[in-house]
């Protein structure tokens, strides 16, 4: 019996990210996340992204004061990261994702439109598109 791949659970025909990690198990994708971010950074348009120290933030994204961004990451268009949040350890957010007040996101992938409400911890996880995780949840591994 083979382990399930990400594309066994997520079907997004227009997602570049899914085309890159879809045939991997979630654990494989997360273990390769730093390498994937390095590769993706090379192809990003510097007219659309602010790129510095292995971090790329789309110019339409909003990062509120006192949000902390540590390590490599790609933050897509129209994303919102609220005050007091911590994003660290290799993260990819596709377009229109929200990280709520005082939430922590570590070594994770969020597909387009997903939202973490306030006071969440999501670590070592792959979250599908248009997923809404309400306040106070702990999701890991």
List the helices and strands and how they pair.
Layout: H1 16-21, H2 26-31, H3 33-43, E1 49-52, E2 55-58, E3 62-63, E4 68-70, E5 73-75, E6 80-81, E7 86-93, E8 98-99, E9 104-110, E10 115-116, E11 121-127, E12 132-133, E13 138-140
Parallel strand pairs: 2-5, 3-6, 4-7, 5-7, 6-8, 7-9, 8-10, 9-11, 10-12, 11-13
Antiparallel strand pairs: 1-2
Please report the distance between the alpha carbons of the first and last residues.
Answer: 21 Å
Strand runs, count: 13
Number of helices: 3
Could you spell the SSE succession in H and E letters? HHHEEEEEEEEEEEEE
- The share of residues in helices is 10-25%
Q: Indicate the low-confidence ranges by residue numbers.
A: none
Shape estimate = globular
Which band does the percent of strand residues land in?
A: 25-35%
Radius of gyration: 14 Å
* Structural class assignment: alpha/beta
Most strands sheet = 8 strands, mixed
- Mean pLDDT reading: 95
Quick summary:
This protein is an alpha/beta fold and 141 residues long. The protein contains 3 helices and 13 strands. The strands form 2 sheets. Strands 1, 2, 4, 5, 7, 9, 11 and 13 form an 8-stranded mixed beta sheet that branches.
Tell me about this structure:
The structure is a single chain. This protein is α/β, with parallel strands linked by helices and 141 residues long. The chain is 16% helix and 35% strand. The strands form 2 sheets. Strands 1, 2, 4, 5, 7, 9, 11 and 13 form an 8-stranded mixed sheet that branches. The longest helix has 11 residues, at 33-43. The model has no long low-confidence stretch (mean pLDDT 95).
